[in-house]
Amino acid sequence: MHPKKERTFVILKPDALQRSLVGEILRRFENMGLKLVAMKMVQATDEQVWAHYNKNDEWYLKKGNQTIANRTAAGMPIEKEAIEYGKDMIRGAVAYITACPVVALVLEGNQAVAIVKKLTGGTEPTSSDVGTIRGDYALDSYAMSDHDGTRCVRNLIHCTDPADGEGAYKREVDLWFTQKELQDYRLVTEAMLYDVNLDGIRE
Fold first, then answer.
1. Residue 166: its pLDDT value, please?
2. Which of 164 and 29 is assigned the larger pLDDT?
3. What's the Cα-to-Cα distance from 117 to each of 23, 107, 112, 168, rounded to whole Å?
4. Residue 203 clears pLDDT 70, i.e. is over it
5. 17 and 100 in contact (C-beta within 8 Å)?
6. What are the counts of helices (DSSP H) followed by strands (DSSP E) for the chain?
7. Is 158 one of the catalytic residues?
8. Which residues have a Cβ under 8 Å from the Cβ of 145 and sit 6 or more positions away?
9. How far apart are the C-alpha atoms of 12 and 157, rounded to whole Å?
10. pLDDT beyond 90 at 74
11. Of 2, 52, 147, 158, which one is the catalytic site residue?
């Protein structure tokens, strides 16, 4: 596959929709030169979100032990086993993602996975770089979500993470789209972005 054909998966989460930021976020992706190849609004199911996050007991224990350490340091009571604290993180994500419809999309372009991750910013909005989507438009933090209980950090957007490996995009996109929903077409801007010697630019 040519590098310009790399694809990545994105969810614009309920807070992006409720705060009318969908167009602004799409504008950032399009301004970078990424091509939209699929988009739809969908009401996610609990099962779909659990499958999307695809975590195992090892992950739940690791995250749960971190939560226990944080609660201990803050003088908060420990009320359950580590694995349950870990599962609470995904339970919170399920409640968040299913709170209202989300916008799912697929973007294509050179190093699309890494480019979208760069534009999106770090998971925690308050520590995301200024200029990223989360850094510019979200102000939630781990500290605030921990204080509020088991709710998920509201960070506007999910994108395929390069750290999740080569198969991450395919696993995610297959949960949200059929192959027939993914479009193949050419944008006129692709000539400037990708043509080797710019043949045909001058009339």
1. 79
2. 29
3. 18, 12, 8, 13
4. no
5. yes
6. 10, 4
7. yes
8. 92, 151, 152, 153
9. 5
10. no
11. 158
Side-chain-facing half-sphere of 196: CA atoms under 13 Å: 1
Tokens 């480019």 label which residue?
115
Residue 96 and residue 24 in contact, taking contact as beta carbons nearer than 8 Å:
no
> pLDDT tens digits for 182-194?
999 999 888 889 8
Question: Tens of pLDDT along 113-156?
Answer: 999 999 999 999 999 999 999 999 999 988 888 777 778 899 99
Average pLDDT over residues 79-89: 93
Q: DSSP string covering 77-143, please?
A: ---S-HHHHHHHHHHHHHHHHTSS-EEEEEEESTTHHHHHHHHH--SSGGGSPBTBHHHHH----HH
The DSSP element (H or E) to which 37 belongs, if any, is: strand 35-42
User: Whole-angstrom Cα distance, residue 51 to residue 71?
Assistant: 28
